[in-house]
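Entry 14. Structure prediction run on the chain below.
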Amino acid sequence: MRLYNTLTRKQNDFQPADDTVKMYVCGPNLYAPCHVGHAMSYVIFDVLRRYLEYRGYKVRHVQNFTDIEDKIIARAESLGVTIDQLAERYTEQFFDDMDALNVQRAHVYPRATEEIPGMIEMIQGLIARGYAYEIDGDVYFRVTRDEDYGELSGRSLEDLQAGARIEVDERKEHPMDFALWKASKAGEPAWDSPWGPGRPGWHIECSVMSRKYLGETLDIHGGGQDLIFPHHENEKAQSESYAGKKPFVRFWVHNGLVRLSESEEKMTRSLGNLVPIADAVAEHGSDTLRLFILTSHYRNPLTYADEALNAARKGVERLRIAARTPSPDGAGDDIDAAPYRQRFIEAMDDDLNTAQALAALFALAREINRARDEGRPVAQAQATLLELAGVLGLRLEEEEGAIAAAPFIELLIEVRNDLREAQQWALADKIRSRLSDLGIALEDTREGTVWRRKK
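Output returned:
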């Protein structure tokens, strides 16, 4: 198996350091619901874990919860609740979203506020080693002390400084020095420390949590490409400086980002251009969302658009029909599914190429449908299709509401298109109107007619 490593900027043969793959994935900031951009990352790393386990590896998966940070404090204050109450609300919603997406639970979900003693210990060690310094109750990491700083993002310290959005603080030795500990401000949550009351910086939590639950060196550290700098660069710097330059991560794996259109920026809560996971699952279903995400290579950007989602919905239906329609009792041999399994494995071994892996599943589905139409048994091939679909986290089961009605909506769209070609506009408009009354909106595009559930 080969994985693209952000640190080496090429695919490398993957092999864990010992008999357990140690995988850490950056989790959510608990101040708002997770959105489709989060879904992409969590689905990708869920599939990576599922595939590693399918290939016989044992995986220990850790994912953090950030429950103390500027946005959390501001959000809790605006709602008139404590940060603990806010964190509990969005932790519960996170698990609901992940269950709906069929994302497996990590083995450990540490929370930042529960790991502060370990953060203080690491910060003290960094100060003792000359990598950090304290000013007025704040503690900063000294980036010029780390000769490898910028290695992960592939840029020099000067380039990083030129492109970074940083607040000017004349107290810092270098503008790029980042906070390990922040002195408390009036009205903010605070914890006691050797430098006075305060709270941890954002980056330190992942270094401490990963070290505690997985050890000094991780096999895989995952997250979105927007985390490469500054978050993962800073994690790498402080972790390796604390550990005497022992490598922090063997494989840095980063997924692409989701946009609402080709021209838009990434989907983020701060920009407000987001679709909550709960809304997306309610409208499209878990399998459709997963197939939509997996049709593209995980390192590529993804555009959240009706055309692509409709295509994914149709794809799920084709796989479901092939996998779930009862097998005939006729004579003849079952399909030899081994070549399709091999194609699937070769694709997944090639930097988790889920698009090609899905192509193998669709090829097997076509063969199953052809054989079933001929009256030949297909039960064994169907079992293989369900097995491989399960590696991708696809259930291929009937879903509820508008999702279950998808084949019938597609049929009505075909009838409407035939009517439009025959210039029977009144009947075509009647279909569109009745679907609208039922909460289904149609949109005619250059690629054809797409549908969505109305808000």
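Residues 137 and 183 are 5 Å apart (CA to CA).
Filed with the rest of this week's runs.
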